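Q: How do we represent a protein-ligand complex in a form that can be generated token by token?
A: Start from the inputs.
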Amino acid sequence: MTRNLPLVFDAPSRGKAPTHWLDLDPDDRREAMTAFGLLGFRADQVSRHVFDRLSDDVAGWTDLPAAIREDLAQQLFPALLTQVRQQTADGGRTVKTLWRLHDGSLLESVLMRYPSRSTLCISSQAGCGMACPFCATGQGGLKRNLSRGEILIQAFAANRMLTSGLVPGTTGRLNNIVFMGMGEPLANYKAVLGAIRTLIAPVPAGFGMSARGITVSTVGLVPQITRLTAEGLPVTLAVSLHAPDDELRNEIVPVNNRWPVKEVVDAAWEYARVTRRRVSIEYALMRDINDQVQRAHLLADLLKRRGDWGWVHVNLIPLNPTPGSRWTASRREDEAAFIATLERRGVPVTLRDTRGSEIDGACGQLAAKEASTN
Ligand code: SAH
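Then emit the structure tokens for the protein with S-adenosyl-L-homocysteine bound:
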């Protein structure tokens, strides 16, 4: 069966974000300084304020000539995000923020504090064009791609929240970033890769994070997975499989009509082979849809074909039901039987915790609620 597929690569350009320091590569930053009549080395001074001190208060950067600070603030430090709402759970250790972009688009990011690390779930697009029927974001369609700056400012804001002691348990920085918020990161490839390069560039060029701490989650855009494989970046790849067979996956992950299960798994395996990074297979358990023992066997067959199990890890996610949707979480006993089957077959598997489910933690739920009340 063929059907009209969502636009995969071309998001509307309407609403393009204003240019921000966070959009720039090191070369562009030096050029920007020259345009202000300063020497190129000043770029590192500015970047130190941004990435090291997490400051955006340009007026207070007294090591820069007073005469240019106002222009610099206006031209390269526009306000990219306005906070609309914040919700916390888990004793303040899970913080979900709903942001409004300059053109009114909404996006959300979720900060999760664990005993020894902090993880931020970020958005790569306003909305999403992949149309997965169980996903709140998928129901609203794609508004537009986020700019590199709009992606990075989410990490900037979270780091600020952490270092200012607002999250119990730490004043440290982010250790992990997962592209599991709104949007399909590989459909906004250039901005996402640019953002990753800034996240991992050492201070002052970037945030100095470890590439291993960054996870790119994709619905399975095969050509883009192949492109990512060639980048030589040891980021973690997560593939939202959710079904081991084309018949079901065509329904619940519509882009499967274009790139079927086998091609997706082949591309993921190649990613693991080249990068030596274990791939995560995401599988949201949906009651009576994909949670049968027989499908657990199909999943094991599919992944086992690649030889040993070192290349892959299955991450089961209890479905977070979206209001008014017919998709819901599996019964406990079905969930247990699914896990037991995979374990017996030797598949490395974990059940993801459900942090933040009481604050509409599932992808796009908070933004969907806000949009429907406006
Ligand atoms: N578009 C990318 C990344 C964003 S979604 C992707 O598809 O991977 C991040 C993960 O959350 C995906 O695995 C997605 O399928 C899953 N997800 C979406 N809605 C969900 C829900 N209601 N409950 C549980 N997981 C959900």
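Confidence is low (pLDDT under 50) at residues 1-13, 369-374. The two ends are 37 Å apart (CA to CA).
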